[in-house]
Amino acid sequence: MLLAGSIILASSFAQAAQTEEFTLKNGMKIIVNEDHRAPTVAHMIWYRVGAVDERNGTTGVAHALEHMMFKGTKKLKVGEFSQRVAQLGGRENAFTSKDYTAYFQQIEKSKLEAVMALEADRMVNLQFDKNEFAKEIRVVMEERRLRTDDQPIAMVQEALTATAYAAHPYRNPVIGWMDDLQNMTVADVKAWHDAWYVPNNATMVVSGDVDAKQVFALAEKYFGRNVGRAFTRTRPQNEPPQLGIKRVTVKAPAENPYVVLAFKVPALHDVKKDDDAFALDVLAAVLDGYDNARLTAKLVRTDRVANEVGASYSGVARGPVMFLLDGSPAAGNTTEQLEKQLRAEVTRIATDGVSEAELKRVKTQLIAGQVYKRDSVFGQAMEIGAMEMSGLSYKDIDLIIERLRAVTPQQVQSVAQKYFGDDALTVATLVPLPMTDKRPAGSADSAANGPLH
């Protein structure tokens, strides 16, 4: 499938693990997930700031700062942070999303104190050398070229979000628009760090073979000295109502045409009350949650009108969310035809519903696939952090699983009827150009979640 489905269920959590939390006097939250099956630890620092908090003119600054976080402090030379983690036998990296920025190390449990000291240092002592920034922003621009400008599907998806959202900052790519990157300064990045990288905007998640009380003591020792500061949370910039279908076409060198349909649907904000979010997650699984789900079975294998198809939904986000249907038509078929066929499969569920037997099979597959993540202490840390950053709580993880188990055929049919009309829809289409080495003039500038560093 082209777009991975069902991310809400990425909230599965190791019930066997013991989780505790507390907050330092400076406002930094500490969450410890004890899992003693192996002598390893995942240590993560999550800052609740991402591309959604950016403004026009400095898009991509959250991701640019992520790169600069490895460029030295008052105590460490450029690159020394990563060198020290490697010397400890660990691995480390970072990632930026629309909603947050996170940094992590995976290490043997006796090395936890050392990496805590490193993270606490760069929270407050980061250096901003203009020459290092000049080199690193070129790396970011090249990353954008490789991940979006040279990738037709990524270009389409970027154009889709820029078209679907008229006001909300989700319309901007995480990596930033190329013009903003070209004009970004080291002062922009420093200002971003100074505004947001404060302990009262950070959450530490430690998962693995640790003792919670000892972790709390280490957190107090290394992060407790960092001073919290008042900051103003970004205004929501709520999206105005959409009044009709939006369409955008991208022309780029590609082997096959492609189309993606995005419907504006509810997000998950209240685990106890937001029934439709769980039904939408199950609907995505009915359409594309396993090898022979409805879209692939009908459009690829039976009717042979598509080479690939997909459906996806994730309700866990700080901002608005969309339900996606996408695919690449088979030879002799067009994107216009595939668009109608994808919508017809949702209409079929809206009209005929799903059986109890099909729903049971789908939910079993959906939930079982997520339970495997309980074998990873890093996966547990990821789920805890992502939930916290979205405004939910890691304490809701088990409840989410129960709510998904309780979804009925009537609820799935209801959301299929309710949310897939024209006024909620944005369609983005890829028109393939001949495959050449040269990008077309005026091609869209950029791409998605940046890496790492």
Automatic annotation (TrEMBL):
Peptidase M16 C-terminal domain span: 184-366
Keyword Protease recorded: yes
An individual GO BP term: proteolysis
Similarity comment: Belongs to the peptidase M16 family.
Keyword Protease: yes
Domain Peptidase M16 N-terminal: 30-175
Classification via InterPro entries: Metalloenz_LuxS/M16 (IPR011249), MPP/UQCRC_Complex (IPR050361), Pept_M16_N (IPR011765), Peptidase_M16_C (IPR007863)
Record protein name field: Zinc protease
Pfam families, A to Z: Peptidase_M16, Peptidase_M16_C
PANTHER family: METALLOPROTEASE, MITOCHONDRIAL-PROCESSING PEPTIDASE SUBUNIT ALPHA
Signal peptide segment: 1-16
UniProt keyword list: Hydrolase, Protease, Signal
GO molecular function: metal ion binding; peptidase activity
